[in-house]
Each structure stands twice: as structure tokens, then as C-alpha cells.
Amino acid sequence: MYLKSVAGSDGVLQMTVTFRPGTDPDDAAVKVQNRVSQALARLPEDVRRQGVTTQKQSPTFLMVVHLTSPDGRYDTLYLRNYARLHVKDALARLQGSGRRRSSVVAITPCGPGSTRTRLPRGD
């Protein structure tokens, strides 16, 4: 098991728990939910009132889209911006693509004149 936590300047704490391959995802979700329930009693009342959520996610990619410019007319920056403006939201609206838009589609440069867009499988 691997645990990663990130605290934002907006007061939001995001923790990601990664289990060993082959772990039953339903069993892992129950274990995480049980630990969260145990921790709730220790949290300040303001935090409990605002709420703590857990979300099961699979790291399996559903689709990888490559945007390229075969003739070199468009550079990586142009392709990345195009993907953000025209591709990312369209993919995020697909049913089953995930719950949080920020984590649904990842856009990464992957070489001269190309951009890779990854769409993880949503649960």
C-alpha cells in the first residue's frame, strides 16, 4: 500500500491510497472507508461539518488520444492548448469517464509537435 497526501492553500487535503496490484478493489474501498470513519472522531467539528468524501478510482486508462502535426505546422504549445480548449471538456462529458473533471483527462506533451491526452476509466 502507498499513501500520498497533498494539502492545498484552500484548506483541502487530498489523500490517495494505492494498493498492490491484484487487491480486490471493493475490499480496499471498505478498508479505506473504515479508516476514514475512525479518523472522523479526531477531526475538528468544522471539518466534519464540511464533509469528508472517499472515491474509488481505477488507474486503468480507457483511451489515449494523440494530437500530432505531421508537417510540423503546429508546435507542442499549440496542440496542448487546442486539446485543453476543444478536446478535454468533450472527453470529460462522456458517460463513465469519471466524477471529477480535474482528474478525468490528463494532457501531457510527448515529443516535438505532439500532445497526449489520457482518459482514465471512471468507476
Automatic annotation (TrEMBL):
GO terms for molecular function: xenobiotic transmembrane transporter activity. It comes from the Bacteria. Residues 97-123 are annotated as: Disordered. InterPro entries: Acrflvin-R. Coiled coil: none annotated. One of its GO terms (cellular component) is plasma membrane. SUPFAM superfamilies: Multidrug efflux transporter AcrB pore domain, PN1, PN2, PC1 and PC2 subdomains. This is Efflux pump membrane transporter BepG. The lineage of its organism: Bacteria, Pseudomonadati, Pseudomonadota, Gammaproteobacteria, Oceanospirillales. The gene is bepG_2.
